[in-house]
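Case study B.
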Amino acid sequence: MAGLATQAAAPEVVTSGARPGRVSRILRAAAPWAGVLPFGVYVALGLAAPTIAIAIGAFQDSTTGAATLSNMDTAIHGTYFLGLKNSILLSVATSIVPGIFGLLIAYAIHTARRGNVLRRVVITASGVFANFGGVPLALLFISALSTTGIVTGWIKDVSSVDIWDHGFSLYNPQGVFVVYMYFQIPLMVLVILPALEGLRPAWREAAQNMGARTWQYWRYVGGPVLMPSFLGCLLLLFGSAFSAYATAEALTGGTVALTPIQIGALLNGNVLAGQENLGYALGLIMVVIIAIVMIGYTFLQRRAARWLR
Amino acid sequence: MAAVVSVDSGAHAPTPAAGPAAEKDRFAVWRWAILLIAGAYFLIPLYAALRFSGLKAFTQVTSYPSFGSAFGLSLRLAVIATVLTLVLMVPTTVYVHLRLPRVRRVMEAITILPIVIPPIVLIIGVLKVAPGTLLGTPNLLGLEYVVLAMPFAYRSLDAGLRSFDVKTLVEASNSLGAGWPATLWRVVIPNLRTAMLSATVLTVALVLGEYTMASLDNFQTFPVWIVNFDQNSGPVSVAASLLALLVTWILLMLIVTVGSRSSGKRGGGQVALFTVATQQPGNTVGEPE
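Model:
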């Protein structure tokens, strides 16, 4: 039907009535979309265009602009491979450890009575700390745990051990790990709490009525229901740590081998001129990794939604 | 206190009849243990920073001439980003709710993208494609902060629109003879005040703390200033960042209190992006056109 109409209209002049009819039909179909046009244009210019530019730049030679795979090749070897490895390991560690700790905190306040002051304080504090990162966070930990930091001094006073003499450093991936927990734990509390609240007390009562012990309830009821949400939240924490730049940069002054820091160094021209395209290649790799993680997150969220309503 | 409780639960544990009560007491012990460890981890660095900077540094912060220009630039960017965010996102979100309800899923997916694409990657792409006229000015940052704020802004506006029956109100307004501008201005926006406030506060907090994009774009916003300044005087820059934190916290507390007052007793308005996303889609009764 539609194909026929288009064919008839194609010769233009034949029927004078057909053309305005078709145009107005297209206009009418397109009209509802006019309302989202400004938003669409903004996203296209501010988000899509830069991303596409990176994807193209990743496969271009820095000087000639010719198509090449050498940026990608450099990006997955040597020091840049180390950066990717460190970034991934750091993100895994700062999703699992704060994930478990955050779950415990969330459960601790979940079991408290509603309207409990402590509960409200923890939720509010989590909202504040989860949004806390970057420069102030780095400086907070530098004043606490650097070689001359106050906590370092306390530990030396109490045990006469200088942690910096025993392999501790704030300026390597392990140090960054300690600092990242500061925003990862509260983020976990915030994202896992709705899932915990979805566990119906009735399920627990039913399990208890049938003689289930606490561990049996968690093994066969609570755990399985919670698991997709928990894993989804871990992926979210992974993404949050993986794309963080400001905290590690301000903490280490750009010396730690993490991919975001390396991208920053390449694009700041601190390394060598004409290395931008290597930066684009690393950026593309980051986007691909985060995209995979977010797809996993969406999938797990959907699984979780089956029970938590 | 914790010791007493644990002894108590130990005494009751063998009798199954006391099961729930004993369990509750045991929770109390580990609950306090966990919260104490967490409290120490979160408060000690804050204390250390306060001690390190000392009170004198706080008065010195504002006396640096570069402080004024850096803070002024951050404020200017916050104003640009907030105004643009509201002008762009409020009509779009309302429109999608009323006319294109099926597009809501797409909107959700699009507005999550600024989180998927790390800011460090986004800014290098922006610097690559931005026209020369924008590259030389900090306004480019203001424009990009709108993109960064989208996930937060969209979600708080979307949640706000779900909290009242916007369709009925708009139909009532239209049938009483109000045109679209009047309806938007006098019916929809007053009902969206809380959501717009939280979108505003989140945007302002984001802009005031944003370091990644500003440092790569080579503009001395407040966070960039704190870092560059670090080399000269440690205590003062720690004091500056504590001040920045304080401002951000006050802003965030503002949404929490306003949010919890308007949303009643439902867990308090949490400044979390994903608690909003996991809510059930509200009134699905309204038929799409």
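The CA atoms of residues 40 and 46 of chain B lie 10 Å apart. The remaining cases will be described in the next quarterly update.
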